[in-house]
Amino acid sequence: xxxxxxxxxxxxxxxxxxxxxxxxxxxxxxxxxxxxxxxxxxxxxxxxxxxxxxxxxxxxxxxxxxxxxxxxxxxxxxxxxxxxxxxxxxxxxxxxxxxxxxxxxxxxxxxxxxxxxxxxxxxxxxxxxxxxxxxxxxxxxxxxxxxxxxxxxxxxxxxxxxxxxxxxxxxxxxxxxxxxxxxxxxxxxxxxxxxxxxxxxxxxxxxxxxxxxxxxxxxxxxxxxxxxxxxxxxxxxxxxxxxxxxxxxxxxxxxxxxxxxxxxxxxxxxxxxxxxxxxxxxxxxxxxxxxxxxxxx
Length: 297
Description:
Blueprint: E1 8-11, H1 17-26, E2 31-34, H2 38-46, E3 50-51, H3 55-59, E4 64-67, H4 72-79, H5 85-88, E5 94-97, H6 103-114, E6 119-122, E7 125-126, H7 128-134, E8 137-141, H8 145-158, E9 159-164, H9 170-198, H10 203-211, H11 218-229, H12 238-255, H13 260-277, H14 285-292
Parallel strand pairs: 1-2, 1-4, 2-3, 4-5, 5-6, 8-9
Antiparallel strand pairs: 7-8
Helix pairs in contact: 9-11, 9-12, 9-13, 9-14, 10-11, 12-13
């Protein structure tokens, strides 16, 4: 491995974190990972990375620490406390939080890290599991320009569209907007699918021609097969999109921005979760439309 590349600690090896960390290993980075499930750590070591027994052990020698965990409480759990990142990483370390959390959590984390001499970027991503595997994620960052520039070579291993959106918390704000657009888009696609099927149209042909026109989208491209095959193995779970819709509706209320359609879709996602679909891919919003249309699901 190239000795001039920074040593990376990766905290959180889930659906997104595992392929992303493996892409860094493949690019020659020295990556030490920690997560709650041993089999995920084993997967990283099999790919050429290293495993750690704790957050503290993972970050102690790192130049860059990357966190990719589900929500604000998990970011706070790994960042704070005697066994957390801030108490165990070296001064000068760059902490890149790629989780999708509230903008306020990111702003607070940056302020608390600064007291320890640790620099922070919030850098949430969009693109789902496929984008993580293919290293074509969109990465929206918040923080200092110098820290972003330093992180850029590493981020280019993980994604394709990488933009500094403003100060701390800005990446999370843009990610919240992203999740709003994606949720409304999936809901619209799901409604179209049920409408087309009930009308007796060739669904595969219809989705192909729709995706070639103004109705086309990355969502439809990525989720078309999920709709056609009713394959809802999670690339991005409804549970997490429910969390994200809470973030965007709360943040929008805080700045005085109305989300009339977003609020309805947030309720539909909450309903889907209450029906037991929280562990399925967010394309399973189709199941809610089918239920509302009188179909047995």
